[in-house]
Specification:
- This protein has helices spanning 10-14, 20-30, 46-60, 77-85, 93-105, 153-172, 189-200, 228-246, 258-268, 283-289, 307-314, 318-324, 329-343, 390-411, and strands at 2-8, 35-42, 62-66, 89-91, 119-121, 125-127, 136-141, 144-149, 175-184, 206-213, 216-227, 250-253, 273-277, 298-303, 347-353, 368-375, 378-385.
- By secondary structure, the chain is α/β, with parallel strands linked by helices.
- It has 14 helices and 17 strands.
- It is elongated and about 85 Å long.
- Helix 3 crosses helix 4 (77-85).
Length: 412
Amino acid sequence: MDLEIVAIGNELLLGFTVDTNGAELGRALAAIGVRVTRRTTVGDDPSSIRAAVDEALRRTRLVLTTGGLGPTRDDVSKKVIAELYGWSFRFHDDIWERLVERFRRMGREPAPANRGQAEVPEGAVVLNNRWGTAPGLWFEGTPGIVIMLPGVPGEMRKLLEHEVAPRLAARAGGAVVLSKELRTSSIPESTLATRLADLEDELAPLSLAYLPGVRGVDLRLTAWNLPVDEARNLLERTAARLRAVVGDVVYGEDGVDLAAVLVSRLRERNMTLSLGESCTGGLVGARVTAIAGSSAVFQGGAVCYSNDAKTALLGVSADLIASVGAVSPEVALALARGARERFGTGAAIGVTGIAGPDGGSEDKPVGTVCFAWLLGHQEQEARYVFPGNREEVRERAAQYALHRLLRMAETD
């Protein structure tokens, strides 16, 4: 079953709002056997909306729109779609009563403009929006099917899950498109592709996509148009084969955060963590503390940006800094040791580097970052030169710091 998406809103065209709904819809619809064949974005202009929906209906006879269902003057989409079907509007007292009650619970009264949200084309099915003010609408007639959902992401997702997906799944025939991702770190995309070259020839009927980003490369396996149980089993078996080939650069699956995996491993080992950060400016600590339950593991850290701070806060020798430079494995190790001593932890990370855009030299170019990791009696150091701008260098450094400690925790 093929479907086209039409996203409506001037804010989307101007770039002030990013269309996260399109990505969410693509994933959710594929999982019930509905293939999104095209996504179109138009502004709050009746003629543009009408043309986009009319053309999409001619291609697939199944269209889903987002946006344009609010109470303001630029929310004209349902009027335009009603014209395509030749339907007039009828005021729904039950919708209005729910709106009034919703506003009452918030200590407010609906504005006169909100009454328009209770006006529904006579042939449309109302998709009850229990999470907002604008109901979704399901049009079905001679032109085809148009499903209209609010543009507010939270409302759109709930309506999709509870009102739209069950209806479409019943018509899709049982075949689905499912994906599974393996998350990797500390390995270039080209190296991954080389390792997996022989296996890729054996993946049919699955496909494999490489999704590189600042934090690493995700490997996405996709099963196309298979029964759901067959798709899931095939994805699990193939993911295990990929893991066996690429090894410990895989740290998790399906959107899991590396910091969450590390916190879990350290917690299993009853081990605590501290940090001594320079160029990352607390980014490693922010990644860790973003994880619920990290307080059982993370004791604290120090952001020692200046040389004086390195000495005063974590006891890094000024003579050491003068002799080898602040960006060196030796100073990274001193930061880690200082953090472990100050916070009394079993594991520690030290990071110091040159994020740029200035400050590099021939021996230590911009992007040079030095690390140290302590885990029990283990001590490891590394020096790495990361590509990218200042933000990317810092992000890559934080990811590498977390991943290397995870590998130590899993192999010790």
